[in-house]
Amino acid sequence: MSREIVFVGGSASRTSRSSHVSQIVAERARHSGFTTRTFSIHDFEAADVLFARVDAPRVKSFVEAVRGAAALVVSTPVYKATYAGGLKALVDLIPPDALQGRPALGIATTKIEAHAPEVERAFRALFAFFRARAVEPLVVLDDELTLESGIGSLSAVARTRVDAAARALLEAVSLLVA
Questions:
Q1: pLDDT tens digit string along 62-80?
Q2: What CA–CA distance (Å, rounded) separates 177 from 175?
Q3: 79-90 pLDDT, tens per residue?
Q4: Is the distance from CB of 45 to CB of 125 less than 8 angstroms?
Q5: Are the beta carbons of 108 and 10 closer than 8 angstroms?
Q6: What structural domains and CATH numbers belong to the chain?
Q7: Under DSSP, is residue 118 helix (H, G, I), strand (E, B) or coil?
Q8: Quick one: which of 66, 68, 2, 67 has its CA closest to 34?
Q9: Secondary structure of 18-76 in the HEC alphabet?
Q10: Which residues of 108-125 are buried (b: 16+ CB within 10 A; e: fewer)?
């Protein structure tokens, strides 16, 4: 099995908090000997995603990468108490059997702490649909992360949660590729 972990960013912003947290997890993965591949909603023609043009070259490459990956990590800002519509549109391109038995981690950032249980529930339902091995979702509050000019800093509490999520993901992947 592949040692590649695919990361998918659903933020409309190119320098988002959720992407920053995802990059920290990706760094941990690379440090542990995994390769990573990152996709963002910015990598695709909007019409290809909206109309699910699975034969479009970028969409085809994305689906092939997900199918061949050891694990999937999705990241998103929280909109309306759940993950972003852009992320949903990308996830809708993934065939239902593409993640079966593979670890999957959902990462979200939110301003409102009360949204955390809702987005966690949404990630669990999403990964259950795919019959993936869901890793405990990671939610970071906006006030736990400062991000200026692409440089971010996590609070100590958030750093502990990010480290725990990365460890859980990498342990789950290591069991599959051992």
A1: 999 999 999 999 999 998 8
A2: 6
A3: 888 999 999 999
A4: no
A5: no
A6: 4-177 (3.40.50.360)
A7: helix
A8: 2
A9: HHHHHHHHHHHHHHCCCEEEEEEHHHCCHHHHHCCCCCCHHHHHHHHHHHHCCEEEEEE
A10: bbbeeeebbebbbebbee
Which of these, 110, 156, 155, 99, lies nearest to 137 by C-alpha position?
110
Q: Are 54 and 3 in contact (CB under 8 A)?
A: no
Is the pTM of the predicted complex or chain greater than 0.90? yes
118/13 Cα distance (integer angstroms): 22
Amino acid at residue number 13: S
What amino acid occupies position 20? H
Length of the chain: 178
Distances (CA, A) of 94 to 39, 103, 157, 159: 13, 15, 33, 30
- What is the average pLDDT value for the chain, to the nearest integer? 95
pLDDT number for residue 176: 86
Give the amino acid at 35.
T
The single residue listed with the structure tokens 């690379």 is: 30
What is the separation, in whole angstroms, between the first and last Cα of the chain? 9
Q: Which long-range contacts (CB under 8 A, 24 or more apart) does 39-48 make?
A: 39/6, 39/7, 39/8, 39/9, 39/65, 39/90, 40/8, 40/9, 40/10, 40/11, 40/14, 41/9, 41/10, 41/11, 41/12, 41/86, 41/87, 41/89, 41/90, 42/14, 44/90
Residues in the chain with pLDDT < 70?
1
